Amino acid sequence: MVYVAAGIAAVAALALAWLTGVRRLLNGSRRIARAVLVSPAEHTTMDDRGAVRSVQAADLTLAPGVLEEIWSPTNLERLARTYWRFLSRCTLGLIRVQYDEDERAVVLLTRPFVLLRFHAPQYRMDATRGLVRWRIAGGALVSRAGHEGDGYLQIDVERCARTDRDTARVHVEVEVANFYPALASAIARWFYSVTQSRIHVIVTHSFLRSLAKLDLAESVVGRYAAPDDGAALPDPRAHEPRESSAA
């Protein structure tokens, strides 16, 4: 019941904070790229076991020179940090991310109110695709069935074929897979779908739109801070074939 109460409190806090925060983030600051949402119609599904898969996506169009400049492991790591920074800013600081050597904790203000726990991220990158994945470890928003399972959150970035010499395009997906929400198992699936799930979709769409500014946050860890630190990153195509966006 402690998990359920914490989950409900977190959802209520997000619902109160996200609108003001998101509007503030999306206004102002000039846009360097153009972001268009291309999420699938069935962007969120739940299977018979109660496992959720949710995919939100956008296409960014920008100058080819800008894309060449930012395509690096350093900026892939900064993109990952930008996601967490956006989450904190759009909830007006109610939701924060705490970093440990082998874990990332998403907390409501501070510990012990841990909403989500992730293992340290895994990175993969080549000349056309970059991927960062956080495996789900647990937290108040995760049912016991999802603790230390095969669930994950990931950001997947892929360079698309050029349509003309003056425009480059990048496809960005944010995916949650094999996530077992505590709210759905403890109360009802419909309650999860109209609260936590809906907030997640709205916030993620807002994050994708915000990428038009290309305002990438500095990494807290700095794993790939040096230009050549990512030379040994594995090829994502060899290990992670892209799934169909239709769940």
CATH topology: Alpha-D-Glucose-1,6-Bisphosphate, Chain A, domain 4
Helix content: 25-40%
Number of helices: 7
Estimate the mean pLDDT confidence.
84
Write down the secondary-structure element order.
HEEEHHEEEEEEEHHHH
What's the shape? globular
The biggest beta sheet is recorded as: 10 strands, antiparallel
Terminal Cα span: 31 Å
Instruction: Please tell me how large the radius of gyration is.
Output: 18 Å
Keywords:
Alpha-D-Glucose-1,6-Bisphosphate, Chain A, domain 4, 7 helices, 10-stranded antiparallel β-sheet, 28% strand, 10 strands
Structure description:
The chain is an alpha+beta fold and 247 residues long. The longest helix is centred in the first third of the chain and has 25 residues, at 2-26. The radius of gyration is 18 Å and the shape is globular. Strand 9 and strand 10 (168-179) form a beta hairpin. It is built from seven helices and ten strands. Strands 1, 2, 3, 4, 5, 6, 7, 8, 9 and 10 form a ten-stranded antiparallel beta sheet that branches. It has one domain (2-217): Alpha-D-Glucose-1,6-Bisphosphate, Chain A, domain 4. Helices cover 32% and strands 28% of the residues. Helix 1 (2-26) packs parallel to helix 6.
Ordered list of secondary-structure elements with their pairings:
Elements: H1 2-26, E1 34-37, E2 44-46, E3 52-62, H2 64-70, H3 73-90, E4 95-100, E5 103-108, E6 114-119, E7 122-125, E8 129-138, E9 152-159, E10 168-179, H4 182-186, H5 189-194, H6 196-210, H7 236-239
Antiparallel strand pairs: 1-3, 2-3, 3-10, 4-5, 5-6, 6-8, 7-8, 8-9, 9-10
Helix pairs in contact: 1-6
